[in-house]
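Marked as duplicate of an earlier ticket. Keeping the data here for the record.
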Amino acid sequence: MGNLEGRVAIITGAGRGIGASVARLFAAEGARLVLNDLGAESDGRGADLGPAREVAEEIIARGGEAIVDGGDVADSETGRRLVDSAVEKYGRLDVLVNAAGILRDRMIFNLGEEDWDAVIRVHLRGHYSTIRPASAYWRAQRKPDGHFRIINFTSDSGLQGSPGQPNYAAAKMGVVGLTMSLANALGRLGVTANAIAPGATTRLTAAVDPDKAAGADAATVADMTPENVAPLVAYIAGTGSDWLSGRVLGAVGRQITLWNTPEVVRSLESDGPWGVADLMDRVEKEFRPVADGPAPSIFTSRIPR
């Protein structure tokens, strides 16, 4: 029996890349699946049900169970339909994986409103669209030991601030805040919520820097596959990960990482209202890195990658 035997999962963005790899591994581990993918281009334009249908047919041919939905995940009706489909087809819902995403890269001074709105819509509205009906379903189950899972996808682009992806970075850090809120709100309902920052060679990453992708050495290409992201998702989706919630984890090649949770690492206090000159002096002394010396902990609080 697999780690996900008998569990029912919704996976968005399941037609290609990481979402498709997660779907295949989930099926191999025994999960029954609702696969969603609009089938758009990497920038979100167009639609094609073919890729998601092919993944489902492959899973079924291997003895698994999967149904397909080609709706726009940022449409709230699609999110409701996915949850309803899981319950009507399989009688339950245990896991929600939000892997759908698009890119429209520009420097901030060249970023148009349409490109900002499109990326924010798919990533944040897309998460909301599925999470709202899924959480309502789990609330109605009244099972604090239900082992229910929300697995969202963030990115190093947000966590570290990619300069050419301000819209994508903003959306992906929004996913982190959403995930923490969900962990705090839904834990008593038996739901855990975590976010994964993946690193893999996909059509999205190739579109950003095709020369870099083409020039990578064979060993790097072999490791940087979507298939190396999927096992972490499958572990979290199982019933043995109740201890893990409200965290960001990375899956890059053969490396799994745990990101630090934001916390106050240094503070200053005053006996009275701050004056600008006093504040400047204290901040410079306590927060600013020393030339040719070690940086204060506020600048070294990240777990090494």
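See parent ticket for discussion. Residues 113-141 form the longest helix (29 residues).
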